[in-house]
Amino acid sequence: MPDGESVSCNSTLKTQDIRRTWRSLQPAMKSLIVTFHLAALLAASAVLFAAEPPPAEAKLPENLPPVLKDKALEIKKQQASAREFMQAGKYAEAEKVLRTLITDYKTLFGPDNALLPECQGALGTCLRAQGRLAEAEPEFRASWEGHVKHAGADKPETLRMHNALAETLHGERKYEEAEKETRAVVEEMKKVYGAEHPATLLNRTNLAVVLGDEQKNAEAVKELREIIEIDERVLGVDKQPTLMARGTLAMSLRAEGKLAESEQEFRTLLQFMDKNPGKDHPDTLTLRYHFALCLTMEKKFAEAKSEAEQGLAAAKNKLGDDHPITKDMLQLVTNLQNLTK
Fold first, then answer.
1. For range 92-104, the mean pLDDT
2. What's the CA gap between 38 and 18, in Å, rounded?
3. How far apart are CA 23 and CA 59, in angstroms?
């Protein structure tokens, strides 16, 4: 297999082709933690995204005057409609209903009432699901602050909204703000659930992801090693949160340029993930893609190509040719074929 020096001894044309191919790999390499976060971390953070519950039925004040009773019945119907739309993934339709509900709540009960935070959080979820993060951010912030005021800072729903705000800031690439809020969430989780609770550890992993995106890789690695020690002791070496943290650690080590350590983490992790959730699971495929990138950076081109081809075959069979993971894997295989000619 040719290394960098032997490649440079070939024809000028081939050298230029390989340089172009190598440059084409750089954006994929720079994605590092972000891609894994989208494919794997969010799968484990379902509480923040698709699994967020629709708004609960609001407990309207008792003894409403007759003029408001008919409006109260209409509100109950709107609440049911919003729940149905969200459960069906019809976020644009749910958004319209929720905006009407929020307007009604403000008109009937004032601009600062205990009914608003639930709907504001649900509206934030709908907006984020549509990719409108800048609009979702103020809704999550208002929901979190409303829950703090009307329910308390230590209530599960309050923590969930604070967490959603932190994740949205991260999605907007407001990394400094995201780090601040994520650290606050971690401290709140420690007080409410304890330092070794899975929810606390998950949010510490989220914090490590943010640190990685800020290029604070040494700090991210330190955080992740602490998380993994607790995960392995409390949950087990093969549980999803443990594997997720190890995958993020592999990314952070690679970003630090510690390729040998990163490679070992990838190898260990894939031994578990190939068995469960399986070689063709999207999280495993994403990890194998990044493992192949790590091998490429080490100039282990033949093994990188073998791993990428294995991933491509599994992605095509499980996800189809048009899936983003399949397309990314195909591009990597093509680039590696050019490098090993």
1. 93
2. 30
3. 59
CA dihedral 335, 340, 272, 183 (to 10 degrees): -50
Q: How many domains does the chain have?
A: 1
Q: Would you state the structure tokens that stand for residue 242, as one six-digit string? A: 């443990």
Domain ranges, residue 277: 1-39+257-341
Which residue did the predictor score with more confidence, 6 or 123?
123
Helices assigned H by DSSP within 9-65: 12-36, 42-44
What band does 38 get if pLDDT is binned at 50, 70 and 90?
very low
Q: Each residue of 193-224: pLDDT tens digit?
A: 999 998 899 899 999 999 999 999 999 999 99
Q: Which amino acid is at 78?
A: Q
Which secondary structure element, helix H or strand E, spans residue 69, and what is its range?
helix 66-87
CA separation for the pair 220, 198 (Å, rounded) = 18
d(CA 186, CA 175): 16
Examine the pLDDT at 67 and tell me if it is beyond 80: no
Question: Token pair 């050019």 is at which residue?
Answer: 338
CATH number of the domain at 25, please: 1.25.40.10
| Structure token digits, residue 32 | 């590092």
- Looking at this protein, which amino acid is placed at residue 163? N
CB–CB of 218/196 below 8 Å? no
* Burial 126-151, CB ≥16 within 10 A → b, else e: bbbbeeebebbbebbbbbbbbbbebe
> What is the tens place of the pLDDT at every residue in 299-313?
999 999 999 999 999
Domain presence at residue 94: no
Residues making up the chain, counted from first to last = 341
Q: Is residue 211 part of a domain?
A: no
Asked if residue 300 belongs to a domain, the reply is yes
DSSP 96-119: HHHHHHHHHHHHHH-SS-TTHHHH
Please give the helix or strand (H or E) that residue 319 lies within, else none.
Answer: helix 301-319
